[in-house]
User: Fold this.
Amino acid sequence: MEKTRAVITGVHGWVPDYILTNKELETMVDTNDEWITTRTGIKERRILKGENQGTSVIGTESVKGLLEKTNTNPEDIDLIICATVTPDMPFPATANIIAHNVGAKNSFSFDISAACSGFLYGLTMGSQFIETGMHKKVIVVGADKMSSIVNYEDRTTCIIFGDGGGAVLLEPTTENVGIMDSLLHADGSGAPYLNMKAGGSRRPATMETVAAKEHYASQEGSIVFKFAVNNMADVSVEIMKRNSLTSEEVDWLVPHQANKRIIDATANKMGIGSDKVMMNIEKYGNTTAGTLPLCLWDYESQLKKGDDLILAAFGGGFTWGAIYLKWGYDPK
Assistant:
């Protein structure tokens, strides 16, 4: 009996128009373009401005573009999963809002929160609905409006993050393409080092938590960097070994866009040259759950059917993982 796999049959991304450059950040905090570029590789990032503009805007525009590109009727969508740490509101799920906005009347939908690894988690979960035969068309969204939880007086975090995201359509196939394997991990001991201290049930919002600026993303940079370098690289190498892939056989590394030094370290450990590494951190920064679909969208025209891709990410929690997939279609 032929094995059914989930294959990506389309990808689309969306970013806001407003560009926040390093030069503009120089007027906001004690930093400069050279310092930011040297340490992160980031030159600019996109910011979603305006009233009542949440992550659902990013997800909605991404899904609308995806449906149009793939000539898919929204009423044929079975499920929408949205990976985000910046939902429009605690409830309902941002995925529900996206589904309504695009007319996916027959789908169910939910959010998942795994920080920068969220898209990997969502892609793995979505693929399982396809592989079991339960659903035929699943959309996975990775999107974040990080500007909503960034303190623009904190130069250690405000230089890193931007707003944006993307979406992919998963469908069943019996060809030798699609999602071949995944490895996902989590370690809750990392919670103190990368988090948002208030706003949840442990520390609900009060005048005191707001005054103490506890509703912004915070991190212990050196600790997070060390964990990210080791774990993102190790899980990428591990999934290559599990699938008997050599560095020569890997066509593309699709790494989470957190920091150019982390990306370089991961590629070096895998034995992958820079010509095989998808990178757009210089123009978007770290869009958290949005980085991987944005990379696939940016590089879609360079991908060929059967290309071997390793997707890898590391995020708060700590969460990390890798997916091995064979690309499912040629450039259109």
The CA atoms of residues 186 and 223 lie 16 Å apart.
